[in-house]
From TrEMBL:
InterPro entries: DinB/YfiT-like (IPR034660), DUF1993 (IPR018531). Transmembrane segments: none annotated. This is Helix-turn-helix-domain containing protein type. Coiled coil: none annotated. Pfam families: DUF1993. SUPFAM superfamilies: DinB/YfiT-like putative metalloenzymes (SSF109854). It comes from the Eukaryota. The lineage of its organism: Eukaryota, Fungi, Dikarya, Ascomycota, Pezizomycotina.
């Protein structure tokens, strides 16, 4: 029987997800250039609906999720991101910083911390929940991260950027050329 470790579940998905975010941002830049759109004035502030946060927020929160879980997986103290991104180039830089954090995680350390208590979560003001690291990764980090990635993808798609399912899923399954 094959088993998955906490490292196996978290680090490849978060890494490939950030690479996917970077990929769709590159597609947005190419679309903007081909269509005379000022990508920096349109895309970072774009949103699906008035009361939902914009693209810049989606990248920031995807990378905050990565940072928070690198802390849980390693036990290291990592400075928070500043949240001052305004351009597509800034978003690429933020994603690269998230990828650099994930490279710090080793299987031995992450798997060694899997059973330890993680942070306490208080989603939307509900009752606080304390989870083990492995459960926090599987039940909170990954859904939250994928929510922000999917929302970012959807924002760009709604702006006319020609991204499709292949742009979203290809890197996750290892299609060459999407790293």
């Amino acid at each position: 029987m094959s088993t998955f470790s906490t490292y196996d579940i978290a680090v490849p998905v978060l890494t490939r997800g950030l690479q996917t975010f970077d990929h769709i941002l590159h597609k947005a830049e190419a679309h903007a250039k081909a269509n005379g759109i000022d990508a920096d004035s349109v895309y970072p502030s774009a949103r699906l609906v008035v009361d939902q946060n914009p693209l810049v927020f989606q990248v920031q929160n995807a990378t905050k999720t990565v940072r928070n879980y690198v802390i849980h997986l390693t036990g290291e103290d990592i400075a928070p991101f500043v949240d001052n991104e305004k351009t597509i180039a800034d978003l690429h830089t933020r994603i690269k910083a998230g990828l650099a954090l994930l490279k710090k995680v080793t299987p031995d350390v992450a798997n060694g911390r899997a059973e330890s208590q993680s942070a306490t979560f208080n989603p939307s003001g509900s009752h606080p929940v304390t989870l083990k690291v492995k459960d926090a990764v599987l039940l909170q980090a990954l859904p939250n991260f994928l929510f922000h990635l999917t929302t970012g993808y959807s924002i760009l798609r709604a702006q006319g950027v020609p991204v499709g399912k292949a742009d979203f899923i290809s890197n996750f399954i290892g299609v060459p050329g999407f790293e």
